[in-house]
Amino acid sequence: STVPVLAIDGPSGSGKGTVAKRVAEALGWHLLDSGALYRAVGLLALDRGIPLDDADALAALALRLPISFQPAGEGVSVHLEGRPRDADLRTEDTGAAASAVAAVPAVRDALLARQRDFRQAPGLVADGRDMGTVVFPDAPYKVYLTASAEERAQRRHKQLMEKGVATTLAALLEEIQARDARDMGRSVAPLKAADDALRIDSTGMSIGQVVKAVLDHVVLHG
Ligand code: C5P
Fold first, then answer.
1. Mean pLDDT, all residues of the chain
2. Closest C-alpha residue for ligand 1 atom 16
3. Can the keyword ATP-binding be found in this entry's annotation (predicted)?
4. Closest CA to 193 of 131, 135, 136, 140
């Protein structure tokens, strides 16, 4: 395909999601939140009582995943089986289920074509763990966004406090480290930077500074 892709990969809490959204808006490109697909498989498996290690049943679910992205206000609402499920998709339980189903190779294969369908003119910003390495290896623009685990835990803590959810920094740090280990240690499509990715460590940077660095990368290389 000649449609340009900007792949943004990195661990959870690195700010990828927000950065990808802002950069897509600035460029006027489409946006793929690939984590939402894995979360959808995880959530529907929990709903339906499908064991998180039943590769055949999970792959069948992923192949005909009943997901759609509906415009809602400024952003999008994720619908499963025709119903909005945004809040359920964002819970820690769904994140853990997503991480488990994401380790099943047949699930990743089943989601490949679906993700590549998002590559539509004038361009695509794709946010995930393996956008630059597996799904869009030919992407002309690749960014690997990180931040220290401590900083990511602090950001999450602040978000949760603002929502009135009580947690401790120590518990969040432990959760983030466990998720990193799972995502980086798995044998299929482990989280790692593509060789040709621009690495940005956002520790101590504002979202605005990261957005600018990513936009500069696309504009200066295009
Ligand atoms: O980014 P998000 O937290 O929504 O992703 C949820 C989980 O889905 C991640 O922890 C990861 O295990 C998995 N995932 C993945 N590959 C992607 C996107 C997400 O394995 N491209």
1. 94
2. 129
3. yes
4. 131
pTM equals 0.93
Task: Provide ipTM, 2 decimals.
Answer: 0.98
Crossing angle of helices 34-48/105-116, nearest 10°? 130
- For the annotated binding site for ATP, the residues are 10-18
Ligand 1 lined by 38 (C-beta under 6 Å):
yes
- Residue with the nearest Cα to atom 12 of ligand 1? 99
127 lines ligand 1 (CB under 6 A): no
pLDDT digits (tens, 9 = 90+) for 148-177: 999 999 998 998 899 898 889 999 999 899
For the chain, the 3-state helix, strand and coil shares in percent, each to the nearest 5, are: 50, 15, 30
- pLDDT of 55 > 90? The answer is yes
Cα separation, 44 vs 51, whole angstroms: 11
Q: How crowded is residue 101: how many other Cβ atoms within 10 Å of its Cβ?
A: 30
